[in-house]
Amino acid sequence: MNRLKISIYYLQELNYRLAYAIFGTIFLFSITYTYKQGLIFIFLPKGLSHFVSTGLTEIFFTYLQLCTIFSFSFGLGIALTQLYLFLRPGLYDFEAKTTFNLLITALIFYICLYVFIFPIIIKVLWELFSAYSQNFTAIDLTFEPRLQDYLSHLQQLNKALTLSFPCLITLNVIQIYTNKQTWVKYRGIAYITAFSIAAFITPPDVLSQTLIGLPLIIFYEIQLKVWSLYEEYKKQLLIRQPIESYKNSHRDKK
C-alpha cells in the first residue's frame, strides 16, 4: 500500500513538472508571436531592405514556423531542467553533480553559440552567397530574397548547430572509455565517421556538412592532443618522484 502511495506521488510530481514545461512553452510561443516582427528583424542581414513573399498565407505560416522553433527550443531546455529536478532526489551525489554540470555546460554552450557564433555565421554566409547575385553581370538581374527560403535555411543551420553539442558529448564519452591508441591508429576512419554523422543530421549540401564535420574533427584532435600532454605530464611526475624505501627493509635480523 505504501509503495502504491509513493508511486502515485511520483506520478503526480511528474505531471506537475510536465505541466510546467508545457505552460512555459505556450507562454514563450505567445510572447514570440506577439513580437514576431521584431524577432525577424534580429535575423535580417545587414543592409537588406526587403523580402519577397509570393504566397497569400506565406508570411502567416512563416511567422508560425519561426515562433514554433523559438518556443520549442527554449521549451526543451525547460523540460530538461524540470526532468533533472524530478530525478534529483533519487540520484547519487556524483550522478547529481555530473548531470548538473552537464546542464550548465549545455546552457553556456548554447548561449555562446547563439549570441556570438550564430550571428557571425549568418553574416558570413549572407555576404558569401549574395556576392554571386550582385556580381552577375551577364544580364541585368535583380536579387530579391524570399522570406520563407531565408528562414528555412536558418532553420536548417539551427538544426545543425543544435545537434553539434550532443555529438561532441558522445565523442567525448567514447574517447574516455576506449583505448586512445586505437583512436590515433585509425584517425582516418574517425574523419570519415565525422562527415558521415554530419551528412546524416544536416541537409544534403557540402556547407552544412562541413559546419558539423569540421568541428567534430577539430574536437577529436584536441582530445588526442590533451591526452598526449597528460600522458607526458604523468611520465615527468614519475621520473621526478623519489623512490620510497620499504618501511621494514632495515629491521634487525634475528
UniProtKB/TrEMBL annotation:
Keywords, ordered alphabetically: Membrane, Mitochondrion, Transmembrane, Transmembrane helix
Gene Ontology molecular function: proton motive force dependent protein transmembrane transporter activity
TM segment ranges: 20-43, 63-87, 99-122, 160-177, 189-206, 212-230
Topology within the bilayer: Multi-pass membrane protein
GO biological process: intracellular protein transmembrane transport; protein transport by the Tat complex
InterPro entries assigned: TatC (IPR002033)
Domain of life: Eukaryota
One Pfam family this sequence matches: TatC
UniProt KW Chaperone keyword: no
GO cellular component, one term: TAT protein transport complex
Localization (cell): Membrane
Location (main, coarse): membrane
PANTHER family: SEC-INDEPENDENT PROTEIN TRANSLOCASE PROTEIN TATC (PTHR30371), SEC-INDEPENDENT PROTEIN TRANSLOCASE PROTEIN TATC, CHLOROPLASTIC-RELATED (PTHR30371:SF0)
Family listed: Belongs to the TatC family.
Name the UniProt record assigns to this protein: SecY-independent transporter protein
Lineage summary: Eukaryota, Sar, Stramenopiles, Ochrophyta, PX clade
